[in-house]
């Protein structure tokens, strides 16, 4: 029937066609962002395990593990886990230093001060083919639980 107006659906009652198109665009962006997060673009810990200080200690005591402190040299010198290698994740050559110092066949146990920089490091290392375990609470949790530590200058 030629004289009838087409059926329209309004997202917001009383909104104009232009406003509805604008809202549909915003809704589409929000849904695409949500989908991207669900597919892993927003995942912070994909590909590695984050554990507390007790579990981290068990893992590093189990043997064939490389302990990596990803803090700055000054932080490392103030105290670190015995046997840890310093690889500052904020340095632009982090990937290169990791490639020359670490064995991809061994687990890499990473930590920082609070657990944030080590997540960054873990994500980088996982992408480079390493098996990684992260100390969730970082040095703060480790030292608060009275775990072993030492004070030596970085090599």
Task: Characterise the protein shown here.
The protein is built from 6 helices and 5 strands; from the N terminus they run H-E-H-E-H-E-H-E-H-E-H. It has a 5-stranded parallel sheet. It is 41% helix and 13% strand. The longest helix has 22 residues, at 17-38. The radius of gyration is 24 Å and the shape is elongated. The protein has 155 residues and is an alpha/beta fold. It starts with 16 loop residues before the first helix and ends in an 11-residue tail after the last helix.
- Number of H/I helices: 6
Mean pLDDT: 85
Net shape: elongated
- Report the end-to-end length measured between terminal Cα atoms: 85 Å
Largest sheet: 5 strands, parallel
* Spatial arrangement of strands, main beta sheet: 1-5-4-2-3
The topology string of helices and strands comes to HEHEHEHEHEH
Computed over alpha carbons, the radius of gyration is 24 Å
Proportion of strand residues: 5-15%
Classify the secondary structure makeup into a structural class. alpha/beta
Total E-strand runs: 5
Low-confidence stretches: 37-44
Helix content: 40-55%
Oligomer: single chain
């Amino acid at each position: 029937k030629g004289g009838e107006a087409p059926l329209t659906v309004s997202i917001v009652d009383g909104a104009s066609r232009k406003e509805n198109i604008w809202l549909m665009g915003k809704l589409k962006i929000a849904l695409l962002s949500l989908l991207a997060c669900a597919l892993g673009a927003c995942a912070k810990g994909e590909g590695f395990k984050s554990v507390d200080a007790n579990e981290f200690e068990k893992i590093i005591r189990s043997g064939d593990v490389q302990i990596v402190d990803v803090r700055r040299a000054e932080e490392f010198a103030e105290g670190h886990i015995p046997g840890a290698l310093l690889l500052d994740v904020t340095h632009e050559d982090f990937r290169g230093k990791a490639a020359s110092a670490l064995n991809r066949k061994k687990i890499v146990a990473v930590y920082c001060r609070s657990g944030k920089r080590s997540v960054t490091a873990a994500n980088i290392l996982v992408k480079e083919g390493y098996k990684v375990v992260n100390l969730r609470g970082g040095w703060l949790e480790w030292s608060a639980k009275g775990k072993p530590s030492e004070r030596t200058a970085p090599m």
